Amino acid sequence: MGQMPATKGPVISKKIDRFFIGLASAFLFVKRFFQEVWKPPYEFKEIARQCYEIGYRSLPLISLTGFIVGVVFTNQSRPSLSEFGATSWLPALISIAIIRAMGPLVTALIAAGKVGSSIGAEIGSMKVTEQIDAMEVSAINPFKYLVVTRTLAATFMIPVLVMYTDFVALMGAFLNVNANEMVSLSTFFVQVFEAVSFLDIFSSILKSLVFGFTIGIVGCYKGYNSSKGTEGVGKAANAAVVMAMFLIFIEELLALQIVNAIRAL
Amino acid sequence: MRNDNKKNVIVGIFVFIGIAILVAGVLTLGGQQKKFVKSIRLKAVFDDVAGLQPGNNVWFSGVKIGNVRRINFYGDSQVEIEMNIESKTKEFIRKDSKATISSDGLIGNKIIVLYGGTSAAGVIEDGDRLMTEMPLDTEQMMVTLQENNQNLVSITNDLKTLTGKIAAGEGIIGSTLMDTTIAESFKTMLLNFESSSRTANQMLVELNRFSKELNKEGNLIHDLTTDDALYVGLKETMASFQSTAGQLERMTESLNAITEKLQQSDNTAGLLLNDEETAATMKSLVNKLDESATSLNAGLDALEYTWPFRRGFKRKAKAEEAASPK
């Protein structure tokens, strides 16, 4: 402490080194996942339990969020459309916004906060309390039992949650549109589906799979590589959320480019 | 173990409902976009498709009956559109129907509109190529609008000049509107008109009354116009007048002939009137007669005092004396 580094060079170098080491370690972690996922035993029970934890237990929070997003987004869009007398386009606008972007993104961000942090904290605490080491000793593959199951559960549950979110958000939007524009449910859904295409739905599902995988793998990675001590658990949980959210936005950006490229074909 | 089973069931239901939402969405979307409907394929070639895209709707009589499947270049610079049309609607679309590109609302998506067609032309079949009509180009509309704008500017300029002149009291309209004396004159003129019309009105009333008087029975005009017997009498009178006029004409002709003869010297009267020698002879004859008469008078005067006529003259004088009043 109090001692200045001799030069700035080695400090920057160490940071860069750490970054690339972290990148390589993450790459190896993902690589190991893809290697382990195909190998038996498949731990279906654990996957089902994780599906329950990640999917079902997140449903109330995500439904509420989706509903609020639907209502708020509709309400906020109305003035802009009513400026040129196009409030009848609200259902189309909302469906495009929710199905293409908001549904997957909001679900993934909420899940990153709830699921990512819990996975990070859970695995981190197991790491800290040396339960993972104990698993290895008892001939259980901890990576397979902890990482693969959670990542698979997150990968499959996020798209299902996105379906719920889309539905609930559209219902929220419908309630708002119905209250203001007296549009019937059938008219609302006709207009909703008129605006979207199959590409929108499939890109939304594919995107959700990627988001789910990201949330699961980042949570597991951060927990699996948490430093020793209780502080490490907190850091792992926090880093899992921040990293997962960051990656989700990056993936959203890339997915948008890819979908637009496909749309233009 | 039981708890695990319960969780598994919940996860199963959860996933099932999620997938059900997805399937319902896909089916609704497919149904709405006619993806799962039996369809036929039609083609149309346009010079310009104005931003039409695959997936855009095809409308017939305002009903969505299909969508654009593919857009390809064709020929030199034309564009061929392939459309999927619901099979059940094909019986309403004829081979001579036309396709045009329109828009779903003012700023909505582009659509293909099928229209027209005669029942004589027969029903379309899979792979048919429809005739096309180019839609109204926005740019052309803008060009026309620009022309209108320019005209409007020149019209408003003219109007400005006109109103300026009117405001300045120039010209007939300007002086009419701005000059108070003209307004007064106009007012006077109107008053005169009013008075004239009042007079004319009175005159009409008088004329009306006059015509009523004329129409009364016993009036000459009324009888002339209504009495048949009078008409016949008048007609006869006119015929008499006509015959009299004919006689007069003939008499005039005779007089003319007499006058002509009087002017000639080959007859006694003409000779008397026209020949100077005869006139001189006549004059001398008259003179001689005068002289003879004078001589005769002197002879007769002498006879009064001559015997045996003297007594006769005395008796006559006595008788005249006795007849004359005392």
UniProtKB/TrEMBL annotation, chain A:
One of its GO terms (molecular function) is phospholipid transporter activity. Keywords: Membrane, Transmembrane, Transmembrane helix. One of its GO terms (cellular component) is ATP-binding cassette (ABC) transporter complex. It comes from the Bacteria. Pfam families: MlaE (PF02405). The chain crosses the membrane at residues 54-74, 86-112, 152-175, 205-224, 236-259. This is ABC transporter permease. The lineage of its organism: Bacteria, Pseudomonadati, Bacteroidota, Cytophagia, Cytophagales.
TrEMBL record, chain B:
It holds the Pfam family MlaD. Residues 40-114 form the Mce/MlaD domain. Coiled coil: none annotated. The chain crosses the membrane at residues 9-31. InterPro entries: Mce/MlaD, MlaD_Phospholipid_Transporter. Keywords: Membrane, Transmembrane, Transmembrane helix. This is Mammalian cell entry related domain-containing protein. It comes from Nitritalea halalkaliphila LW7. The lineage of its organism: Bacteria, Pseudomonadati, Bacteroidota, Cytophagia, Cytophagales.
